[in-house]
Amino acid sequence: MTAVPVTPLATNQDLDPVALRQAFGVFPSGVVAVAAEVDDELVGLAASSFTSVSLDPPLVSFSVANTSKTWPTLRRASHLGVTILADHHGAVCRQLAGPVAHRFDGVAATTTADGATTLDDGLARFDCTVYHELEAGDHTIVLLQLHAVEQADTSQPLVFHRSRFQSITGGLG
Question: Would 135 be classed as within a structural domain?
């Protein structure tokens, strides 16, 4: 196999947002729903920036756009629910990113006494509280401390890759 010559990366270049979005899109990420009951209403959003952070203390994170109209309300909840979405949740994920008044229409969800709301058929469900928020450019990185976890589903996760929802097919063994 012949090696293809690679041009060194230029420094001090203008980083075009479209080119950045395309480059970031080559890295697949899982998708979660973050939700809670706030003022007797279900509030939630979809995030494709979820990651585990720490086992001690148990922390996870996701990022939310600073322009989000949902996060200021959602962050007021005493507890948040995080649901790792399965490959059959593409429509639910789009719904969670759609009009606020209809985000939970027809979605089976459970809310704890503390207000954490999770989707009933998610791959894993977490009860969390906000541990720390860090402004990072046009987004805020939200660290969540876990208080409860349930993992029951063994189907494949919903994956966001190249600006599309996809599923994992096969594996390397």
Answer: yes
**What's the sign of the alpha-carbon dihedral 111, 28, 157, 94?**
positive
pLDDT tens digits along 94-111: 899 888 889 999 999 999
What's the per-residue H, E or C state across 63-127?
A: EEECCCCCHHHHCCCCCEEEEECEHHHHHHHHHHCCCHHHCCCCCCEEECCCCEEEECCCCEEEE
Amino acid type, 139: H
Q: From CA 127, how far away is CA 129, in angstroms rounded?
A: 7
Look up the pTM and report it. 0.83
Closest CA to 93 of 159, 21, 26, 25: 159
Can you give the CATH number for the domain in which 114 is found?
2.30.110.10
Nearest to 79 by CA among 128, 150, 144, 131: 128
Q: What domain count does the chain have?
A: 1
pLDDT tens for 37-52 read 999 999 999 998 899 9
Residue 173 is assigned to a structural domain of this protein: no
User: Structural domain of residue 37, as residue ranges?
Assistant: 30-154
Taking alpha carbons only, the member of 33, 32, 161, 157 closest to residue 87 is 157
- Quick one: DSSP state of residue 56? T
DSSP single-letter state for residue 157: B
